[in-house]
Amino acid sequence: MNTIAKTFAPVVAAVAAAVAATAVSVALLGFAPAQAQSADQVKVDFARAVYLHSAAQVHNERPQPMLRAVVVLRIRLGDNNQWQAEVFRDNPDQPEMTRAALESVARLPVPVGLSPKAHQMLRNDGLIEAWLFENDGRFALKTLAKPQRTA
After folding, report:
1. Which segments of the chain have a pLDDT < 50?
2. What's the pTM?
3. What CATH fold (topology level) applies to the domain 32-141?
4. What is the enclosing helix (H) or strand (E) of 57?
5. Sheet holding 139-141, edge to edge
6. Alpha-carbon distance 143 to 45, whole Å?
7. How is the chain split into domains, by residue range?
């Protein structure tokens, strides 16, 4: 393998993995889900949507032992079926992490294919999700995060 190929091989592999993951997510989110959506499935679908629409800010490694910040949001659907986020817990010394979490919700499109029960649950109770931030500012959502590394 020549020097250029060796240099770019990890980048090509990472891009290929990201494209494959995006294709799977698009396939999952592009079709209307089954009508009998549980609260857990709605939460998983929400987390996948955040990962898809904030791909540059998401990591898929095991979270570090001491996280930079943890932001917990309550997510609901508003009157126009737009996602609304309410800060449940943040790190006052890290307002940029709270902004990043809120912005990742604001980027989400209007959900489609929700069962009436799931739609009602998101409008009334919503869901609670935690953004787990690494030192570099990337995050994983608790629902999809791998087990945290130990110190």
Report:
1. 5, 8-34
2. 0.76
3. 3.30.1150
4. none
5. 83-89, 69-77, 127-133, 139-141
6. 10
7. 32-141
